[in-house]
TrEMBL record:
Residues 439-594 form the Helicase C-terminal domain. The keyword Coiled coil applies. Residues 864-898 form a coiled coil. This is SNF2-related protein. It comes from the Bacteria. Keywords: ATP-binding, Coiled coil, Helicase, Hydrolase, Nucleotide-binding. The keyword Nucleotide-binding applies. PANTHER family: SNF2/RAD54 HELICASE FAMILY. Gene3D superfamilies: P-loop containing nucleotide triphosphate hydrolases, Tandem AAA-ATPase domain. It comes from Prosthecobacter fluviatilis. Pfam families: Helicase_C, SNF2-rel_dom.
Length: 959
């Protein structure tokens, strides 16, 4: 259906207009332009983050697995579309690449990971504020790096800061929590989005801490918070919930099952018995690691290295053989060195060697940031090192002599059972096998290559430099040449190539820990933990690659158990029964996973048991104690408190999300239809349109420039290998700009009702009539934001005025321009309609802003009352001390004691009287501070308006 330049201009303004902060229309372009399925709870969460222009941020606390990264991506994309592009993402170091990939692949947003190497490189180039120089990319960095560069972070005028795994900041109220306090100060007054599934883990004070990171004026001070809210009753529950409601948003998995179906998990245990040589190797290395002094492991590294070596020992003889060789070689090099060395933990050569094999090392070492001073060696040191080297070389010879591992043979049995189980469940015969060691990964590749499972094996690790991966990548790159599938980042494209191969041709993926992050394998329903991490959060992350939104089959999880190892049996029992990782619908709940605070810390607790216990009874006692500690940490009372404070009734949530789903899908469909109508018009002589969601661009219009590529264009969420067409694509941006800037003279326009193809009831009476139509763009700026409104004014030649909706619907019809109408002027009646609509919109905006103002004023009232309560509490405390001193004086036995008591009473009374005199002054100061804050808000209420006439036409509605 043809449209005119007038309609194209209207569509261009409609597609790009700025919307109110609380409107679902605000996110229309963002949702339409994202490579993600539309889920109403994610749209709802993103709108919550925008709900008030006076808000300083929000906590998005959806349960694990509901896509908080997607929610943040919607918020980030909207900011980016509004040209507010100073955006910082702070995340645990091991999630930086995942964030980079998610933003690039799902939202087509440029990102830059800032770390020591890239930071120093920028400095060398003369960019002395590297955070500020990343103007054309979202900056992603770790907690530690952001804290270390707090001054730089503070001096950057961020439009938005997203903090992932934000529960790491919940103890910011404690002065000794240095990283949290540094980040809070560095990000003061910046708009922040905090992401955490566990905003409340151990204490209500953690809520105070997290909220204070966003807004110091939600609560008073910590003491007044404790006094009011730590001992909750029905009344204080409601009061605290009201305070949290504007700042914290939470959705549960059970509330979204209507449109996010979850499958179940099934556990398979594959037992194995190590051979004699394997047992001997395990015992020798285990005894070695339990020695009180080890030359190979300097003191500050010992916990970390012992943990890693025990994991490699449990992985395979091939993994531990490599580690033992590295340790011996490093000691030999040390014996040859004359100078003492000072090295940081991550820079130590032994750590670098192990990091090449054990990919989780960076994440683990991050929490053990210490230094070693290596003193010059004494004669005794040299003798001890030489003896230790001899032991390590003996262990290595034994390890190298082992050709096959019992666990490896049991893998072949487990795969047969697991594939049979998957077949019974109707799933494809695909499995991902996780190992913690690259050397074990190589062993498994050799093992499976000589088995019935030899075909369709793909490796996935941190580098993928093997020949097979290179060949897969080369074939993938050639296949997608000239499309948006290729991002330009070889790391990201390699990951995509390997996952695509596994989906389309592969049967088994053997992955190191690199495969537990940032890839989606919903097409695979079999997870094999060849090595079982002790960190339950990492296990959940692994299983979550397959057991996630879009999985159509129950997921089978295979674990291996060494029947001769009592500690291994107890670890599995703990992970299975306490953390419920391997069975059920949702896996481990965030209440349980969140309660352990740090997965690395939990690994260290288990490693300590392996280190200190030798006999079965010692192992039993130690694990029984750990079980008791977990019972205490996984607090049922806090679970109920969290539920009351942060969760809404299911019916309420489900009804809201159903409405949000309907509205969003309708809006999305309408948005994409409008975008394609504009594109079809602007490229009518340059492209072939295959459908409502795809077109082939043959040549680029001269007005658009040569950098626009030709070829197939499709809307997001298509499976075609093509350019992804969206509002943010350079082609769409230039088409919109061209249409908006087109100068349109008054004209005669015919609208053809019959060609529309469907009935529009409100236009039926106008068939055969004609009249005048004007469209204007009305912009209002207030509350530090701008919003655009299109005003439609129309009348018939008989003088009958049309309402806004009928005037707008005329523009949806096929139309042609018959002639220009240079003498056409805006009738007085239409000028009045435009003026009246302006006034209506200003009133609507003023009322809305009034609600925002009132909410902010109430928040500040509560904050001021909290501080006053704190002042009054201090006087009450002094009154209590005076009473106690008087009682002590009355019972004093000697005159000297009585006089001393009286002197103490007088001193405290003097302090109290001084406090009383200063109380009113302090309360006045708080009120003045409140008034100053209110005054700043009132200054934002004034409206700045602008009206631009887009076009005027004389219309005829043909029957």
């Amino acid at each position: 259906m043809p449209i005119t330049d007038y309609q194209a201009k209207y569509l261009a303004h409609e597609l790009s207009r700025r919307c109110p902060s609380d409107s679902v229309e605000k996110l229309a372009a963002t949702v339409a332009g994202a490579q993600v399925d539309l889920n109403p709870h994610q749209v709802d969460a993103a709108l919550f983050a925008f709900q008030s222009p006076l808000s300083k941020g929000a906590i998005l606390a959806d349960e694990v697995g509901l896509g908080k990264t997607i929610e943040a991506g919607l918020v980030i994309s909207q900011k980016w579309a509004e040209r507010k592009r100073r955006i910082l993402v702070i995340t645990p170091a091991n999630l930086r690449k995942q964030w980079h990939q998610e933003m690039a692949e799902k939202f087509f947003l440029p990102c830059q990971i800032l770390e020591a190497k890239s930071y120093n490189a920028a400095i060398r180039k003369g960019h002395f504020r590297p955070f500020e120089t990343q103007e054309h990319a979202i900056v992603i960095c770790s907690y530690q790096f952001a804290a270390a560069k707090a001054a730089d972070v503070h001096h950057t005028d961020w439009d938005l800061v997203v903090i992932d795994e934000a529960h790491r900041l919940r103890n910011v109220y404690k002065p000794n929590n240095k990283i949290a306090n540094m980040l809070k100060m560095a990000l003061h007054q910046r708009h922040k989005l905090l992401l955490t599934a566990t905003p409340l883990q151990n204490s209500l004070q953690e809520l105070f801490g997290l909220v204070s990171v966003i807004d110091d004026h939600t609560f008073g001070d910590l003491r007044s918070f404790r006094e009011q809210f730590v001992n909750l009753n029905a009344q204080t529950y409601d009061a605290l919930k009201a305070r949290l409601r504007p700042i914290c948003h939470r959705t549960l998995r059970r509330q979204v099952t209507a449109y996010v179906p979850y499958t179940k998990r099934h556990a398979i245990i594959q037992p194995f018995d190590p051979g004699e040589s394997e047992d001997e190797l395990y015992n020798l290395v285990s005894d070695y690691l339990q020695r009180p002094n080890l030359q190979a492991l300097p003191p500050s590294q010992r916990k970390l290295m012992t943990l890693v070596l025990r994991k490699l020992l449990a992985s395979s003889s091939f993994a531990i053989a490599g580690a033992l060789t590295s340790m011996a070689n490093r000691m030999k090099a040390r014996l040859q060195a004359d100078d003492a060395l000072s090295v940081d933990l991550l820079g130590h050569p032994l750590v670098e060697d192990l990091n090449a094999d054990y990919e989780a090392l960076d994440e683990t070492a991050e929490e053990l940031d210490e230094e070693d001073e290596l003193e010059p060696l004494t004669i005794e040191d040299r003798k001890a090192m030489q003896a230790e080297i001899a032991d390590l070389e003996e262990f290595t010879r034994l390890a190298v002599s082992i050709d096959h591992n019992a666990k490896g043979r049991s893998l072949l049995v487990a795969l047969q059972i697991a594939f049979e189980t998957a077949a019974e469940l109707g799933a494809a015969e695909k499995a991902i096998i996780f190992t913690e060691s690259r050397k074990t990964q190589s062993y498994l590749l050799r093992l499976l290559a000589d088995s019935p499972y030899a075909d369709g094996i793909v490796l996935f690790n941190g580098t993928n430099t093997d020949d097979s991966s290179k060949a897969i990548y080369a074939k993938w790159a050639e296949r997608h040449k000239g499309t948006d599938k290729i991002t330009g980042s070889r790391t990201a494209d390699m990951r995509s190539a390997l996952v695509d191969y596994f989906r389309e041709e592969g049967r088994i993926m053997i992955a190191t820990e690199a495969g537990a992050e940032g890839i989606n394998l919903q097409f695979c329903s079999l997870v094999v933990n060849y090595d079982l991490p002790w960190n339950p959060q990492r296990i959940e992350q692994r299983i979550g690659r397959c057991h996630r939104y879009g999985q159509k089959h129950d997921v089978v999880v295979v674990n291996f158990l060494n029947q001769r190892n009592e500690a291994d049996l107890r670890v599995y029992q703990l992970l299975h029964e306490k953390f419920t990782l391997f069975t059920g619908v949702f896996g481990s709940s965030d209440e349980v996973l969140g309660s352990i605070e740090s997965g690395v810390d939990f690994e260290m607790r288990i490693a300590a048991i392996y280190q200190s216990c030798r006999r079965p009874e010692q192992i039993k006692a130690a694990f029984d104690q750990l079980q008791l500690e977990l019972n205490f940490e996984i607090n049922e009372a806090l679970r109920i408190t969290r539920q009351k404070l942060l969760e809404n009734f299911d019916e309420e949530v489900q009804a809201k999300l159903k409405l949000r789903d309907d509205n969003s899908r309708t809006l999305l469909k309408h948005f994409e239809k409008q975008l394609m109508a504009l594109t079809r018009h602007e490229l009518r002589d340059h492209a072939t349109f295959h459908s409502e969601s795809a077109f082939e661009l043959h040549r680029v219009p001269a007005s658009l420039g040569s950098e626009i590529p030709t070829g197939l264009y499709v809307f997001p969420r298509s499976t075609s290998a093509a350019h992804v067409y969206r509002l943010g694509h350079p082609l769409a941006e230039q088409l919109l700009t061209s249409a908006k800037q087109r100068d349109l003279p008054p004209a005669e326009v015919e609208f053809h009702y019959a060609e529309h193809g469907s009935k529009i009831s409100i236009l039926e009476p106008l068939r055969g009539q004609s009249g005048v139509l004007t469209v204007s763009l009305f912009t209002v700026e207030s509350m530090d934001q701008a919003e655009d409104h299109l005003i439609y004014a129309a009348t018939t030649d008989a003088g009958v005025l049309l309402d806004q909706e009928r005037a707008r619907r005329l523009l949806d019809l096929p139309a042609v321009v018959r002639a220009q109408a240079p003498g056409l002027a805006v009738p007085e009646s239409l000028a009045q309609i435009t003026s009246q609509r302006q006034a209506e919109l200003q009133q609507i905006i003023a009322r809305r802003n009034g609600h925002y103002y009132e909410a902010e004023a109430q928040k500040l009232d509560g904050w001021a009352d909290d501080l006053k309560l704190g002042l009054e509490r201090e006087i009450k405390e002094m009154d209590r001390l005076i009473k106690e001193a008087r009682r002590a004086a009355a019972t004093a036995l000697t005159l000297e004691d009585k006089l001393a008591s009286q002197r103490q009473i007088k001193a405290v009374e003097a302090q109290r009287n001084e406090k009383r005199r200063s109380l009113f002054e302090a309360q006045d100061a708080i009120d003045q501070q409140r008034e100053d804050l209110i005054g700043k808000i009132e200054g934002k209420l004034s409206q700045q308006t602008a009206l631009e006439s887009l076009f005027i036409v004389h219309w005829t509605l043909c029957a």
